């Protein structure tokens, strides 16, 4: 069984999946969402969970640098509770501080153009979230 990593933003959810042994995380896709109309991509998440035989979900928890949880973190906590109930799969919240910046650095080091970076940054952040969890 595999683990799924999610980087939940206000417009997109970056998705990553572990290998079958749980050693490495790979980027899968970016799901477009719309918080204003309560469209959180549940249908697509369900398809990915089934297709990849996911047994655990790791959701990035954006904390403030002092360790407190702000409004975005509270939204991610609610999202995690909802998907745990909806899909009957254990969900782990994982501190994601600086993962988007780290993903940006990885893509810059790989000389990925600005336009392409924008398309893959959320998937890369999801990979870093999941890989951090797997490495722990």
Describe what you observe in this structure.
This protein starts with a strand and ends with a helix. 44% of the residues lie in helices and 26% in strands. Helix 3 crosses helix 4 (114-135). It contains 4 helices and 5 strands, in the order βββαβαβαα. The radius of gyration is 14 Å and the shape is globular. The chain is α/β, with parallel strands linked by helices and 136 residues long. Strand 4 (54-61), helix 2 (71-87) and strand 5 (91-95) form a beta-alpha-beta unit. Strands 3-2-1-4-5 form a 5-stranded mixed beta sheet, sandwiched between helices. It has helices spanning 42-51, 71-87, 99-109, 114-135, and strands at residues 2-8, 12-18, 25-32, 54-61, 91-95.
Shape, please? globular
Helix % is 40-55%
Q: Counting H and I runs of at least 4 residues, what is the number of helices?
A: 4
Proportion of residues in β-strands:
25-35%
Strand tally is 5
| Succession of helices and strands | EEEHEHEHH
Which regions contain 5 or more consecutive residues with pLDDT less than 50?
none
Measured distance between first and last alpha carbons: 18 Å
Q: Let me know the largest β-sheet.
A: 5 strands, mixed
- What order do the strands of the largest sheet run in, or round the barrel if closed? 3-2-1-4-5
From the alpha carbons, calculate the radius of gyration and give it in angstroms: 14 Å
Q: Which structural class matches the secondary elements? A: alpha/beta
Rounded average pLDDT: 88
């Amino acid at each position: 069984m595999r683990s799924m990593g999610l980087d939940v933003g206000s417009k997109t959810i970056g998705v990553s999946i572990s290998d079958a042994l749980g050693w490495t995380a790979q980027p899968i896709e970016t799901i477009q969402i719309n918080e204003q109309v309560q469209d959180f991509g549940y249908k697509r998440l369900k398809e990915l969970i089934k297709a990849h035989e996911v047994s655990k979900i790791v959701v990035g928890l954006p904390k403030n640098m002092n360790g407190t949880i702000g409004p975005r973190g509270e939204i991610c906590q609610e999202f995690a509770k909802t998907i745990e109930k909806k899909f009957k799969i254990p969900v782990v919240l994982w501190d994601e501080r600086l993962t988007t910046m780290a993903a940006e650095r990885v893509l810059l080091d790989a000389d990925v153009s600005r336009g392409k970076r924008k398309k893959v940054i959320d998937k890369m952040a999801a990979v870093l979230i999941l890989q951090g969890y797997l490495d722990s």
